[in-house]
Structures are given as structure tokens and as C-alpha cells.
Design a protein that fits this description.
With 111 residues, this protein is an alpha+beta fold. 40% of the residues lie in helices and 22% in strands. It has 3 helices and 5 strands, in the order ααββββαβ. β3 and β4 form a beta hairpin. The radius of gyration is 17 Å and the shape is elongated.
Length: 111
């Protein structure tokens, strides 16, 4: 994003970007919408295996805003790689408009 205070260029775009980030930072997604998105995402790129067993990601829920925080229930929290977590963050960001907002993901064992 290019801005120049001296030339007064890019200021309106700066405020548009600030509004977009603020909206994403405060946005809450319903669990139903999240899980429909999650199911499609898992079909297109499944997480793989962990210690010779299929890694299952069962469902996702948003537990907080400011910053947007999500919990994913799985059969093996340690089996979800950092790269796959980043993949999920990027997909969430593009699907729901969390542009510029940090996204926290916690993995929890489903009992």
C-alpha cells in the first residue's frame, strides 16, 4: 500500500484498508458456515497421516474475536503440521475476509 503525506496520495485507500482490517478483526462466523467451509477444504486437501493412522479433523468453531480464534477438534493434535495450520489460516482469511487480522488456531483432542 503506497501512501505519501507530502503528496497526499493513497490516504483514502489507507482508511479503506483500516476499515477492512477492523471489520475482519471483529467478525464472527457461525459454526455451521465454518463447518461447511471446513468440509470443502478437507475434501480438496486432506491433512494426511500421523504415525501410520489417518489424521481426522472433525470440526471447527470460532471461540473468540479480537483476534479471531478458532478451535479444531482432531484425533491427533500433534499430527497437524505448522504448514497445514498455516494453510487453514490462509483459507479462512480468503473465505471470510479476515484480511490483515491475525488468526489463532488451537488444536484440541476430541474425546
Amino acid at each position: 500500500l503506497y501512501i505519501s503525506a507530502l503528496q497526499r496520495k493513497g490516504i483514502p485507500r489507507l482508511f479503506q484498508k483500516i476499515d477492512a482490517v477492523s471489520t475482519g478483526y471483529n467478525f464472527r462466523v457461525t459454526t455451521g458456515d465454518l463447518n461447511r467451509f471446513f468440509e470443502k477444504m478437507l475434501r480438496s486437501n486432506p491433512p494426511g497421516m500421523y504415525k501410520g493412522k489417518v489424521l481426522h479433523l472433525y470440526y471447527i468453531t470460532q471461540v473468540a474475536v479480537r483476534p479471531p480464534s478458532f478451535v479444531i477438534f482432531t484425533n491427533a493434535p500433534k499430527g497437524v503440521t505448522t504448514n497445514y495450520q498455516r494453510y487453514i489460516q490462509n483459507k479462512l482469511r480468503s473465505a471470510f475476509g479476515f484480511e490483515g487480522a491475525p488468526i489463532k488456531i488451537k488444536l484440541r483432542l476430541r474425546k
